[in-house]
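Write out the 3D structure for:
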Amino acid sequence: MNTIPTIFNERKIPYTVSGGQNPASDALPISALVLNRGGRQFNPDVYTELEKLRFDSILSVESPAETVDLDYIAKAHPKLRFLLVRDKISPGEAVNMGIQESTGDFVFVLWSDMIPSLPLLGTSFIDRLRERRALCLLPSFSGRSGEQVPSKVMPAFHRRNELKLISILPEREGEPCLFPFDYCGIYQRIPFMLSGGYDYSISSPWWQKADFGFRAHLWSERIIYDPSVKLVYCGQAQAEDSTPDASYARFYLKNIAPRFSGESSSLPYSLFPSFALRSGLGLFASWEEFRLAKAWVAKNSYLFRRDALAVTDLWEKYAP
């Protein structure tokens, strides 16, 4: 059973840094981080579009399975730095690694099969980012033919005990979003690291993002929609598996099960029998999972500012 990380980027993944130049004197305190999905959807123009803007650094995470010609790309884009990973990692781990390696106060995360569109990057844009005080700004997503992607995920409880995550089209600037769709957005670097980032022990991308988003809202952070930042898929938006599994069990114990007293949260032993009956993990594995989660909640108990039901109340006026 994987332990639950208690500090940011706790599992150290070997990687090397290749290429890149020092930031230009007029660079802004915002970095760009490109995740490589691999395959035929790779869009080398993403680096060209990013280099037109005043990012202080542009990083790209590359795994061993990628077949992209890095030497060719490095020669064409001298400002680009590669983070070369030796082992296969989850997208959340790639985000953690890239944000830790970035130098800007903000980090714009996107995939290599996307075309980015941002407002003119200047001091007014950075000031606006600071004023929003958001852990992450969610962009607007669209497909190649212009259709908008339902990228806003919102939580709801059915009969107050069955959690549902609903994907809808975002409508209004500043409305809350549960988590960054497809891991993309403009993150505040230091608050992201203080939040613990993405939990590498949760293998399902869907529940890894849900864990990060719920934790952010439970700890009183903000993830909000900003339509001025746009991402266009070169191919199809990736379908995700939201099946409840062992990843869901860990997400549930860390985010839904804790009881908030008004000052702190805890995971009472009295919840174990019902968890064991419903988890599908077996008695021994259920107890080990519960024990790890209880210790994690205790360590972070005073960072909680609300419970899961209060988090869903943030979306009541936006419910479809």
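The radius of gyration is 20 Å.
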